[in-house]
Design a protein that fits this description.
Layout (H helix, E strand, L loop, with lengths): L2 H29 L9 E6 L6 H16 L3 E6 L4 H9 L5 E5 H9 L8 E17 L14 E3 L6 H12 L9 E3 L6 H7 L4 E6 L4 H9 L2 E3 L4 H9 L8 E5 L5 H4 L4 E13 L4 H13 L1 H5 L10 H4 L9 H9 L3
Parallel strand pairs: 1-2, 1-3, 5-6, 5-7
Antiparallel strand pairs: 3-10, 4-7, 4-8, 4-10, 9-10
Length: about 325
């Protein structure tokens, strides 16, 4: 090959490398806000009980954060659920968490410490109330729980908040008219399988791993939560406005539902933080939550429901300014 052709080849190679560098630079400019390096440091993320959706979602979010923000250390804390999660963030014991909207509103209405500092990051997915009984049980409605051994969730869980409200709406005193059991999704299914409980309340995304596993080893069914109970809840006012009547789709637990939907109620989940958490960090967190939807959704079905169009509706909380910056940056 002549010297001229070798020179032209080298020149074209250099031009190709330069073009590639430009493309890579543009890609990095698009991925990184204002060309900034990812934030670092340490944050604490409060999740939920073992085998619950909060916990699995939190674990997979930590993996996603590690890819986007390799210098950020994320500590995960298990918890009773929504009520404890809200308290932790409001009082500075955690920086981010997932909580049901009714638990957030309840904390605000009760003027919990630091309630005014709470801010929303993203609306995520809905929790469905799932009332589980053995398939052969005579329990057909919430009213039939009178005198029964009922798993109502840990004291600071979101399911405890909803279960007690549902019981009262059905005319049942949750402290006197049933034998309440303070189990979560980690131990509640075992109580049902062993005959140590007659019914089990759970509030979580669909499907929840703990109930999917139970379906493999124990025949159970769901008790319908009819619309009249939802109407009674709404009549109470306050945080009950976040409950909406819906149906659990037949695809949630195919072995159990066998093609049938189940009337129940749902409540939205919100990713929350505090006003004093850094704007840049929160912007990055928001970006990762939205960007990781499909990857996490392949393992946690509920994550597939995270939608950029609805994520900004973090009622009852105002958006954190960092989250607002992200949503503005991707607005069409």
């Amino acid at each position: 090959m002549s010297t001229v052709f070798r020179t032209i080849g080298r020149r074209r190679g250099l031009q190709g490398a330069a073009a590639g560098a430009v493309v890579l630079g543009l890609l990095l400019w698009w991925l990184l806000p204002l060309g900034e390096a990812p934030p670092g440091g340490t944050i604490t993320f409060s999740t939920g009980t073992l085998r619950g959706v909060y916990q699995e979602y939190g674990q997979r979010l930590r993996t996603a954060f590690a890819k986007d923000m390799p210098q950020l250390r994320v500590k995960l804390l298990t918890s009773d659920g929504s009520q404890e999660n809200v308290t932790r963030v409001a009082t500075g014991k955690a920086d981010f968490t997932i909580a049901a909207a009714d638990a957030v509103e309840t904390y605000e209405l009760e003027h919990g410490p630091g309630a005014d500092r709470l801010r929303g990051v993203a609306r995520l997915y809905d929790d469905y109330i799932q009332l589980v009984v053995p398939r052969t049980s005579s329990i057909r409605s919430v009213a039939d729980l009178r005198g029964k051994r009922v798993v109502v969730g840990p004291p600071q869980s979101g399911v405890r908040l909803i279960a007690e409200r549902l019981l009262r709406a059905a005319g049942i005193d949750p402290h006197r008219d049933i034998r309440p059991l303070a189990d979560g999704i980690d131990t509640g299914p075992g109580r049902l399988r062993q005959g140590a409980a007659d019914a089990f309340f759970w509030s979580g995304g669909l499907p929840t791993d703990g109930l999917t596993r139970l379906a493999d080893t124990f025949p159970f069914r769901f008790v319908p939560i009819e619309g009249d109970l939802v109407a009674r809840l709404h009549a109470e006012g306050g945080a009950t406005r976040y409950y909406r009547a819906t149906n659990m789709p037949e695809s949630a637990y195919p072995k159990v539902q066998q093609g049938s939907t189940v009337p129940t109620i749902a409540v939205s989940n919100v990713l929350i933080t505090r006003a004093d958490v850094g704007e840049r960090l929160t912007e990055w967190v928001t970006r990762t939550v939205i960007k990781s939807r499909d990857g996490i959704g392949a393992h946690v079905h509920s994550a597939q429901l995270v939608d950029l169009r609805t994520a900004i509706y973090t009622d009852p909380l105002a958006l954190h300014e960092g989250a607002r910056r992200y949503y503005r940056s991707v607005k069409p």
